[in-house]
Amino acid sequence: MEVVNAIGRRKAAVARVYVSEGTGKIMINKRDLKQYFPSSILQYIVRQPLAKLDIEEKYDIKINLYGGGFKGQSEAARLAIARALVKINPEDKATLRAEGFITRDSRSVERKKPGRPKARKRFQFSKR
């Protein structure tokens, strides 16, 4: 099997994933998963599609991440991994979609509007 690549986005984060057959090693920006995401919750998010299909030790994954924060990056990586797994085996698509790993979460920060302190918050109104 040659290398399969896919892209995933979430908020401002972009993940490019390269999946090849191997022993289950996940490298992010040339660092190990545990080193890049010290939080076990974020590690779990990245591994979710592999765990769902029970193929955690079957593939080596190399991820290039940039932009966004920890949470956005982990979810972008999850989407990219799910997309790559569907490229490898299209029958897995229904299983991954049922868990919501194929859907791109398009929510992002709303822009700040002029004359307001934040996007929707207003300054205190004074009648007189």
From TrEMBL:
<protein>
    <recommendedName>
        <fullName>Small ribosomal subunit protein uS9</fullName>
    </recommendedName>
</protein>
<dbReference type="GO" id="GO:0003723">
    <property type="term" value="F:RNA binding"/>
</dbReference>
<keyword id="KW-0687">Ribonucleoprotein</keyword>
<comment type="similarity">
    <text>Belongs to the universal ribosomal protein uS9 family.</text>
</comment>
<keyword id="KW-0689">Ribosomal protein</keyword>
<feature type="region of interest" description="Disordered">
    <location>
        <begin position="106"/>
        <end position="128"/>
    </location>
</feature>
<dbReference type="InterPro" id="IPR020574">
    <property type="entry name" value="Ribosomal_uS9_CS"/>
</dbReference>
<dbReference type="GO" id="GO:0003735">
    <property type="term" value="F:structural constituent of ribosome"/>
</dbReference>
<feature type="compositionally biased region" description="Basic residues">
    <location>
        <begin position="113"/>
        <end position="128"/>
    </location>
</feature>
<dbReference type="InterPro" id="IPR014721">
    <property type="entry name" value="Ribsml_uS5_D2-typ_fold_subgr"/>
</dbReference>
<dbReference type="InterPro" id="IPR000754">
    <property type="entry name" value="Ribosomal_uS9"/>
</dbReference>
<dbReference type="Pfam" id="PF00380">
    <property type="entry name" value="Ribosomal_S9"/>
</dbReference>
<dbReference type="GO" id="GO:0022627">
    <property type="term" value="C:cytosolic small ribosomal subunit"/>
</dbReference>
<dbReference type="GO" id="GO:0006412">
    <property type="term" value="P:translation"/>
</dbReference>
<dbReference type="InterPro" id="IPR020568">
    <property type="entry name" value="Ribosomal_Su5_D2-typ_SF"/>
</dbReference>
<dbReference type="InterPro" id="IPR023035">
    <property type="entry name" value="Ribosomal_uS9_bac/plastid"/>
</dbReference>
